[in-house]
Amino acid sequence: MGRNLLMSSLENASFNIIFQILFRCVTFIINAWVIRNVGHEVLGIMNVRLLLLESTILFLSREPFNRACLGQKEEFSWNHIINQIWLSVPLSFVLSLLFVYIWLNLLPPSTEEYAFQYEFGCWSVALSCVIELCSANLVLVAQLFCFVKFKVALDTLHIFVRTVLFLSIIIYDRSQALIAFSIAQVCSIATIVLSYYIFFYWYIKNKPLYAKGALKSKFVPDIIVQRLYDNMDDFQFTTLKDFLPKYLGSMNTTFNKKLSALTISFAKQGVVKQLLTEGEKYVMSLSPVMSFSEQATYDVVNNLGSLAARFVFRPIEDSSYFYFTQMVSRDLPLHKQDAQKIQESCIVLSQVCKTVTSIGLIVLVFGQSYAHTLLMLYGGDAFVASGLPVQLLRSHCLAIVLLAINGVTECYTFATMTSSQLNSYNYLMVFFSICFLLLSYVLTYIFGPVGFIVSNCINMSARIIHSIHFINNKYKDTGYKPLEGLHVGKMFLLTLFIAGCICKLSENKLSPSSVFLHILVGAICLCSVLLAWGFENKDLVIKLYKKLSHNEENKVSQD
């Protein structure tokens, strides 16, 4: 295969970061408008209760199959992979019926004013999940064959369709906010699924024409067509029927046992990981700890506090997981694998660890001085008057450092564990999830909403320790030390400490009289910190610059 997996992973991460910024900006603007014009309760129902339902169904029905099938196209036939991924559709249907019943009958109900809209929203979210998984096969193929820009284009289309529909309905009638959310959810997902099938129909139909040099299009530039078809000799699909499940004579031949076992391992892991990921929302939904209005306030602050995670860490983790699954075999010891691949993957892991840890520390330090300013600009003076939102956001900054380290180390761990190791880790994850939920419930009553963040920090610390132990054991006989990337430079730390002190002084002296000057001081300090990091890691910066420049030169030469 001629595709550069590392560059595709970097490109995917870059586009995902841009996409996440766009998506979150749109979301924050809509949330701010809803808070001011509709009310906190509606925002709490949408962003906590309904989106939690969507996350639960999709994660449990899609994640195990996607993770099991990634990186397996060399080991298993495409028939087995496609058959396996299609199992997510009936599973999502069953899970939808189960969780909609729980959401409607077992969780604390909404007010009578929104009862019908809430029920309509639950069924709409469930329907959108089933529809979305009808394209899980195409999404997997697009990822494995590095259709990065196509995926970003569809993600952008998803945002556009959902936003336009939601705003069009809610502006017409603000009392139907949950109905607007539901309709926008179903229609935007249906649009994306249809777009995937249309694209691959066009792609397969025109592939033979491209091979003969006879492909011309009025709507698609030649250079884009060339990039879509170059180095695609291993693309074996010749019709849309190849993306549909096939019965191969018996159940044993239709589904591969090893692939099914790996899927089951990830499914067990997925249950507890979902509890760990969305634990605070489950606690809020299952117990009357906070009202919908208070949940909305916590969700807004939580989203602001997770900007770095959503914009930077999550795309890096997704791309890194894909990269490591392609470079490192699960079932072979490192000394029996390609030495060049292992060396490269080790260097990449070290560099990613250093980068995300540095970003986390920057967020921690600057967050202490700019939490109040950010929340005041977003929600107004009334929003920060109680002091709780500021306290929540400052606490989140500590969680972001741990989230950065945990995301990368656990990403590598999951990408390289064998099936037996994954099964063993499932039991540990069960312990982590139980402790996390208990801590969340107890600490919430002790510290209020901040208890959610404290329990999350304790949970992530335990997971980091386990991942570090696994990685150290994996590399103990190789001479490589990828986790040295967690040790950021002394010059960077010193500059960051001085910048933090200056910003705190600015918050106390300048911020009450001039928010602009306070922000200007922070911008100058941030530039100084980034320069110190760049100087201390100039080899990494130069290497990344050369890789990106080389990639651009190749594109120009192809043009």
Describe the structure concisely for a colleague.
The protein has 559 residues and is mainly alpha-helical.
- The proportion of residues in beta strands is under 5%
From the spread of the alpha carbons, the general shape counts as globular
What is the number of E strands?
0
Please, what is the average pLDDT?
82
Q: State the order of secondary-structure elements, H for helix, E for strand.
A: HHHHHHHHHHHHHHHHHHHHHH
What is the gyration radius calculated from CA atoms? 24 Å
CA(first)-CA(last) distance: 21 Å
Tally of separate helices: 22
Q: Unreliable segments (pLDDT under 50, ≥5 consecutive)? A: none
Please bin the fraction of helical residues: over 70%
- Major sheet: none
* Tally of domains: 3
Task: Describe the structure in your own words.
The chain is mainly α. The protein folds into 3 domains: 14-197, no CATH class; 278-488, no CATH class; 489-559, no CATH class. The protein has 22 helices and no strands. The protein has helices spanning 5-37, 40-69, 78-86, 88-105, 115-133, 136-144, 148-172, 177-211, 222-229, 251-254, 257-277, 279-286, 292-305, 307-327, 339-379, 381-384, 388-416, 419-447, 450-475, 490-509, 515-536, 538-558. α1 (5-37) packs antiparallel against α14 (307-327), α4 (88-105) runs antiparallel to α5 and α14 (307-327) runs antiparallel to α15 (339-379). The longest helix has 41 residues, at 339-379. The radius of gyration is 24 Å and the shape is globular.
